[in-house]
Amino acid sequence: MTVSLKLIDIRERHVLENLFSYYVYEFSQPLGLSLDSDGKYAFKSETLNPYWLRDDHHPYFILSDGELAGFVLVRRYPPNIAVWDIDQFFVLRKFKGKGLGKKALAAALDQRLGDWQIRIMKENIDVLGFWQSAVEELVGGDYSLGLDMDNELEMYFIRLFYQGKSKLQCLDFVD
């Protein structure tokens, strides 16, 4: 399995918006979200605007052997622009449990070395194990995990310093 990231062109934004509805669906159980009157899990599409308006926001599709498998949205963290932030990360169910998410995270971090963080909603505790495992494969135990506030929400924060592929020997980009 070859995992790659593809920068999302503005002309492909509609595809990201379609995927985003599945991403919101994933939060329906932990957050108790309901469908809108059209039978969709709605979101404000304008929240994606910075990904095409700002130089410090980078939207990527995650591809598995060329097939669309999810997305990752990377940005400089607004309260601390010295830190890169995994703003949103989504892998379609078809691809879960196959190592694709870990490889996609590695590919995203390889784009920009330095200080990183991953924020996990406290209510979405089911994914915390994935994130810890993925980060440990990248940097060993050299990261921190703690609760902190973000936009008036208590969230788990994983913080790490990423130096590049030299730490990736346990991850193979081609299976």
From TrEMBL:
Domain of life: Bacteria
Gene3D superfamilies: 3.40.630.30
InterPro entries: Acyl_CoA_acyltransferase, GNAT_dom
Entry GO MF terms: acyltransferase activity, transferring groups other than amino-acyl groups
Location of the N-acetyltransferase domain: 5-154
Protein's name in the database: N-acetyltransferase domain-containing protein
Protein species of origin: Grimontia marina
